[in-house]
Amino acid sequence: MVKTFRQYEEDIVRCNRCGFCEEVCPTYKVTGEEFSLARGRNRLMRQSMEGHFDLTKEREINHHIYSCLLCGACVVTCPSSVITDTLVKAARAEITRANGNPFPIRMALHGVLARQRRLTLGAKALRFYQRSGARWLARHTGFLGLLGSLGKAEGLLPDIPARTLRERLPEVLKKPLKPRHKVAYFAGCMMNNFFPQVAESTLRVFQENDIEVVVPVSNCCGIPHEAYGETEMHVKLAKENLDSFKRFNVEAVVTDCASCAHGLHYYAELLKDDPQYGPLAQQFAAKVKEASQYLAEVGFKKEMGPVNATVTYHDPCHAVRGLKVKDEPRQILKSIPGVKFVEMNESDWCCGGAGSYNVTHYDLSQRILARKMENFKKTGAQYLATSCPACLMQLAHGLDVHQLPGRAIHVMQLLDQAYQNRAVKSGARAV
Predict the structure, then answer these.
(1) What is the side-by-side strand order in the sheet with 211-214?
(2) Are residues 84 and 192 in the same domain?
(3) 349 and 326 in contact (C-beta within 8 Å)?
(4) What letter would DSSP give residue 354?
(5) Which domain covers residue 110, as residue numbers?
(6) Structural domain count, the chain
(7) Are residues 199 and 233 part of one domain?
(8) Is residue 407 packed enough to be buried (19+ CB in 10 Å), middle (13-18) or exposed (0-12)?
(9) Final residue of a structural domain among 81, 99, 117
(10) CB neighbours of 133 closer than 8 A, spacing ≥ 6?
(11) Crossing angle, helix 278-287 and helix 231-245, to 10 degrees?
(12) What DSSP string describes 232-301?
């Protein structure tokens, strides 16, 4: 059973207000507000536990609970090992149990994200919006201004593709002649619907390395539901995904979405007390690997063509702190001929995307993103690589807003291009 907010009292009292979190908290850096900091948030939650106020009835206080990015930077820095991100998620679950989520969020979590096919229909509607002239009207008539933060975030949308990954699978999936390994690919919501070209690159890379790939039916990993305290739906989605993947005898479950990888790995903790699904979740979580992590473990072919470009890398929070994946994507990038890799200052600093945070807290997320863009600018790189679709969307938006030359790209896309360029000699084009 998932621990309730009140059961974390022993954890929260460990915060001694030392202030180490001040140097790493993105929201504190841009607001300067005490309650936008782990120390301040922990103080609010502790006061609620001690009965000074009811957390579920204080909107102003809840604002600070929901303004947390859940990036985990404070957790790895805290000398007292206070798990602030976990405490914040538990507090949100408490608030959700008492009040429910606002209608738009509830609609997204229980309606759109509850079933992959519903999200696919929504994505196709967004494509119609982008291609029909409706977007032009919305932008030039002032309609977007009426939508508040949602209207501002409209520019985050990438160009929606005509077909999802699942619709393209018959053309992409090919069994290697002599497969060395067999894996199941988790097609996350964003990869399937918004970035199928990235997922195709991943599948080609795996097949190029003689890895057989199967793509089971799946729903959302549950990360958004966890972030908004929708515990019951989170558990439901986890069980559905486990039932789908258990039918396949594979050595690993891979995904090119760092957030999905983190979410899938968490199933072991989420369901540890479930007599039926607990053991299955443990076995499943042990197999979950982020794509670059898996390739680094089993080895990947170094015979590539050049990709002549300067590249830097942004560490997704769920990868670098959730999964402890840091060196593997860099290992891949540095192995590509022609790539000049430049380390970016504060590469593991949150970009402000944080799932839907850049929609619900657009202005704040953009202030956080500006720091990332300034660090990217100093690298002089042509490509800003990452391994998370939410980060990819946020970073691409940042490059556009700040009018910076460069392109946000997934690590697997660069590796895929290098394999495609293998037959090309010295004049190979960049991606």
Answers:
(1) 211-214, 181-185, 252-255, 288-290
(2) no
(3) no
(4) T
(5) 103-156
(6) 4
(7) yes
(8) middle
(9) 99
(10) none
(11) 70
(12) HHHHHHHHHHHHHHTTS--SEEEES-HHHHHHHHTHHHHTTT-TTTHHHHHHHHHHEEEHHHHHHHH---
**Residue 348: CATH number of its domain:** 3.40.50
Which residues, in sequence order, are bridge partners of residue 310?
340
- What is the pLDDT averaged over residues 18-23? 93
Report the SS3 class of residue 408.
strand
Same domain, 177 and 275: yes
How confident is residue 134, by pLDDT bands cut at 50, 70 and 90? confident
Report the number of secondary-structure helices (H) and strands (E) in the chain: 25, 8
In the chain, % helix, strand, coil (3-state, to 5) comes to 60, 5, 35
Q: Is residue 377 part of a domain?
A: yes
Quick check: 397 and 362 in contact, CB under 8 A?
Answer: no
Residues counted in the chain: 431
E strand segments, 297-342: 309-313, 339-341
Residue 425 clears pLDDT 60, i.e. is over it: no
Three-state secondary structure call for residue 213: strand
* 137/86 same-domain check: no
When pLDDT is cut at 50, 70 and 90, the band that residue 431 belongs to is low
Amino acid at site 48: S
Same domain, 269 and 361: no
- Two tokens, residue 260: 């999905």
Q: Which of residues 84, 99, 114 is at a domain's end?
A: 99
pLDDT at site 148:
79
On whether both 171 and 288 belong to a single domain, the answer is: yes
148-159 pLDDT, tens digit each: 778 888 888 899
Handedness of CA 165, 166, 170, 174 (dihedral sign): positive
Are both 148 and 174 inside the same structural domain? no
User: How far apart, in whole angstroms, are the C-alpha atoms of residue 103 and residue 86?
Assistant: 24
| Listed residue (270, 283, 169, 282) closest to 217, CA to CA | 169
Query: What's the Cα-to-Cα distance from 45 to each of 83, 95, 97, rounded to whole Å?
Result: 13, 12, 16
Indicate whether 429 belongs to any domain: no
Q: Are residues 128 and 25 in the same domain?
A: no
Residue 216 token pair: 């089971």
